[in-house]
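Continuing the batch. This is chain 6 of the set; chains 1 through 5 are on the previous pages. Same settings as before, nothing changed between runs. Recording input and output for traceability.
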Amino acid sequence: MFKKVSFIVVALAFFIVPWAWAPARDYAPGLAVVSGIIFSILWGNPFAQITGKMTSTLLGATIVGMGCGMNLVKVLQAGASGFLYTVIGIAAGIGLGVLVGKQLKMPRNAMYLISVGTSICGGSAIAAAAPALKAKAHDIAIASATVFALNAIALLIFPPIGKMLGFTETQFGYWAALAIHDTSSVVGASFQYGPTALEVGTTVKLARALWIVPVTLFLSWFIAEKEEGESKKLKLKVPWFIPGFLIAAAIVTWLPAVAPAGGFIKEISKYLMVTTLFLIGANLSKDKIKELGLKPVLHGVILWIILSVGWCIAIANGLVSAR
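Output for chain 6:
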């Protein structure tokens, strides 16, 4: 009972403290992930089955909530401006992922899942690609755990690296959106950097996430192994929070009367995101760490370093129009 009460208290604290105490906001997202991981490893997550199901829903709700405080025209402009970079990043990520994976002699489906998760949007892309590839549960678990672990690291190291390099908020928003896997980690890292970084990072990342659709079609049609006599089927699973975010932004853009309420919802969503990050951290158990293995970790780390350093250099040298 004490463990459960402690877990609930800590989770609520990550919602209440950043909201009530401004100085805590810069450190809360990274601290939330680390605290969740430490809690889970030392004590175990007493609500593991519940939080495992809750986090994706809470993540989607916070993203839709943040859409309530954004102008749809600006959102679409940000997404359009990052279109070319997104295409380049996804093509390079999947291509390099397959190349590195083959060199490491990775299991075929795990290789594609990690490549897609790294290139598009982490867990959501893995969940969408898995049925198209007919991936087994073990492959999905390995890919998800690898990408998740790298997301947690990105949350901690990207903001200080960005400040060390003197990135503007817009530059950092682009870097986070193009180089970090999962939407939650992009939002968490951008949130630490500033409001402009949060808006740019979220919108460009969601535009990147839309590529789940064509990439999943490609995997289903050209990559998935077919059994004898089986016809080709297109399987799609589009994250619901993408249209939800756009609808929320459209409502506050074209109905100015609801803008104040939308701004309040956006504020609540930012702090709910911090609590969600704690729950995400708490989902990384000892068993998940053990099941990773060396090859998937190497595959994910090599691919992630190449992409994140490449985008960092491009932004720092003005090759990406992020000023």
